Amino acid sequence: MALEFASRKATFPNYRKFETTFAGRPFVVETGKLCGLANGSAMIRYGETCVLCNVTMSEKPREGVDFFPLSVEFEEKLYAAGRIPGSFMRREGRPGEHAILSSRVVDRPIRPLFPKDMRNDVCVTMTVMSLDPDCSPEIAGMNGASLAIAMSDIPWNGPIGGVAVGYVDGEIVLNPTKEQRERSDLALTLAASMEKIVMIEAGANEVTEEVMMDAIKAGHEEIKKLLTFMNGIVAEIGKPKKSFTPVELDHALLADVYAKHLEDVKAAMNTDDKNVRDAAMLPIMDAIAEEHPELSAADLDLISYKLQKKVVRTWLLEEGKRVDGRGINEIRPLAAEVGVLPRVHGSGLFTRGQTQALTICTLGSTKDAQIMDDLSDTPLKRYIHHYNMPPYSTGEARAPRSPGRREIGHGNLAERALIPVLPSMEEFPYTIRTVSEIMSSNGSTSQASICASTLALMDAGVPIKAPVAGISCGLITDGDPLHGGRWMTMLDIQGVEDFHGDMDFKVGGTRKGITAIQMDIKIDGLTYDIIAEAFEKCRKGRLYILDEIIKPVIAEPRHELSRWAPKMFSMMIPTDKIKDVIGKGGKVIQDICATCNCKIDVQEDGHVFVSAVDQEDAKRAIFTIKTIVEDPEIGAIYKGKVTRLMNFGAFVEIAPGKEGLVHISKLDTKRVERVEDVVAVGDAIVVKVTDIDQQGRINLSRRDAILALEAKKAAQQQEQN
Predict the structure, then answer these.
(1) Distance CA 154, CA 243 (A)
(2) Which segments of 460-527 does DSSP mark as H helices, in order?
(3) DSSP letter string over 409-440?
(4) How many C-beta atoms lie closer than 10 Å to residue 355's C-beta?
(5) Consecutive sets of 10 residues in the chain, 721 residues long: mean pLDDT of each?
(6) Cβ partners under 8 Å of residue 261, min gap 6
(7) What are phi and psi of 238, to 5 degrees?
(8) Is there a contact between 73 and 148 (Cβ–Cβ < 8 Å)?
(9) Cα–Cα distance for residue pair 554/460, rounded to 1 Å
(10) What does the angle CA 8 – CA 13 – CA 14 come to, to the nearest 5 degrees?
(11) Which of 84, 376, 627, 713 could form a disulfide with 655 if both were Cys (CB 3.0 to 4.6 A apart)?
(12) Taking the model in full, what pTM does it have?
């Protein structure tokens, strides 16, 4: 007889635990206990970092789409780091920039390995539940997502593995610790299969192509070890893969379309103008729609894609011909310009064919730095790069929208490319924001934004260490390059080559070396030979841009800031004097800001940053702070405010909290009978420090200050005469 309110103890018969060592640290996979309704699930424990990875797939394909609907989500839970969110609601909201970038890093290597003709929705979710700063949650999430998909019943040609690679003190380091990351000249995220490289994402301090290649190979060797471990798990507990209904066009119909319209498509495609090409394709597609009224809009889009893809790839592989008539290693027409906008702090316009980026640089105080409420290593961002791609840049007739994942990713790429050349806070105590507005888009807009941002920074007078340029390299393959298939690379791909090609390999750097890489592919991976050739072509391309385009326009940063930019000064004060500068309830610092029309940032280590549009205002604020924290100098002249009147004289505040006495005999150059006859409370007067007694009391003289200033004025007039 069953007992009311009774229950059996839960057991987890499918629970399994697998352990290995990854880059010298424990890597543990747990499955079969959590998330039993997902198609695939794994809890990854890397060190003390825990990331829960799940993948699900819809039972039926999505109707009316001509793409594979994959979504990848990287969820940052601040409890993982023992923190409460800083928002008003005190809960995590929509994904922040760091989470979006982490999602993209996982999305890009796994997407090409799904069947291209599958239309079932697939969602990959990685939830960071515990954070060990020495063990990257992004790497744990990438490997966990790969394993979850591979173990599931979802069709996929994986697994892949991911690793972070650093370059510390001339040595390659795999999955560097937090301390090592802070000292590393390289931040490389690598994804690979057993045979090929699937994704490269990197920021670097001007490292050479040779070092980068060595880092890729070292990371690949570690990934192979991890993949052997993953394949063992899949072989033991992996589910049989489901079948799906592929989205295919009738082969006979497609052959008929090719026979009738391929030559017309070739004629339409033979131009360097995107608008002309699109206009020429419209009557062709209208004719196909009339011939085959049974085709849906999605079918027609797919036919248009296949026709253009066939033309582009055939021309490149068979004839070495590009759509716009350029040579394989020829860059589109280039132009650069600075000082485009008069009232901004700096601006640069870069044009490459029909791709055009305008970047605006804005300088702000240290208080303008962005506070990061996420799980990244950076609590504050001093350099901020934003990328906007409005609809008019592609000729679309729609209202602008908020930046999407693509815009955030492109902005971050440009940000990574420029950070290595920025001056330190000590050298240049400013928060720097650059905004790249894409004026026109026909491929490689992110690399155009790097070039435009270099121009804007130098125009603003930011003393960057070296100019940075960016350029992309494309790829066309016929068969598997690893097993004898044909392939070729081409420099500076435009939109149609990116859309129908197999790779967009973007590299930013200086004359000295690489500062950023982002590699996107549509095939199952790249060989070392392809990567090496892409590196070399991009190196030659960026040197040409730096030497022939950017240098003639602006060879070095301007020596002076814009008159509209804030003038920043910094100083150090003793930490025990910070309270005196701030004052009770912030009264002193607020007073200085109001009086001197400036902004002041006092940091815990005693660094003080003062900014004002007028540098004289900033200098007055600095002088005031110096007066607060230092003993007044005998003989120095100050501008003070009368605070109290006595029969024997007037008390004058020469700085907040620093007050001295002007004896009645020192109030004027002539005899004074009553203090009130000369000054009143609140008057601003010049005074000279004449003495400081043993008790720290300051004696001041208005008479001596007036005489000293008159003598100085007379001397200047004499010099002029």
Answers:
(1) 8
(2) 495-500
(3) HHHHHHHHHHGGGSPPTTTS--EEEEEEEEEE
(4) 25
(5) 69 94 97 96 98 97 88 97 89 92 97 94 98 97 98 97 98 97 97 97 97 98 98 97 85 89 92 88 93 87 89 90 92 97 97 97 91 88 96 92 92 97 92 97 96 98 98 95 93 93 97 97 96 97 98 96 90 91 91 91 91 90 87 86 93 87 93 92 93 87 93 86 71
(6) 284, 287, 288, 307
(7) -65, 145
(8) no
(9) 11
(10) 140
(11) 627
(12) 0.86
Q: How far apart are CA 428 and CA 423, in angstroms?
A: 6
Q: Are the beta carbons of 120 and 60 closer than 8 angstroms?
A: yes
How many Cβ atoms sit within 10 Å of the Cβ of residue 68?
18
594: left (phi over 0), alpha (psi -120 to 50) or beta: alpha
The single-letter DSSP state of residue 526 is B
Rounded-to-integer distance, Cα 471 and Cα 451, Å = 9
- Under a CB-based contact definition with an 8 Å cutoff, are residues 200 and 190 in contact? yes
SS3 215: helix
The number of residues making up the chain comes to: 721
How much is the pLDDT for 89? 86
Peptide bond into 159 cis (omega under 30): yes
Measured between alpha carbons, how far is 74 from 53 in angstroms, rounded to an integer? 9
- The domains found in the chain, sorted by start residue, are 16-237 (3.30.230.70), 251-319 (1.10.10), 334-553 (3.30.230.70), 566-630 (3.30.1370.10), 631-721 (2.40.50.140)
- Distances in Å between the alpha carbon of 321 and those of 266, 488, 573? 12, 12, 66
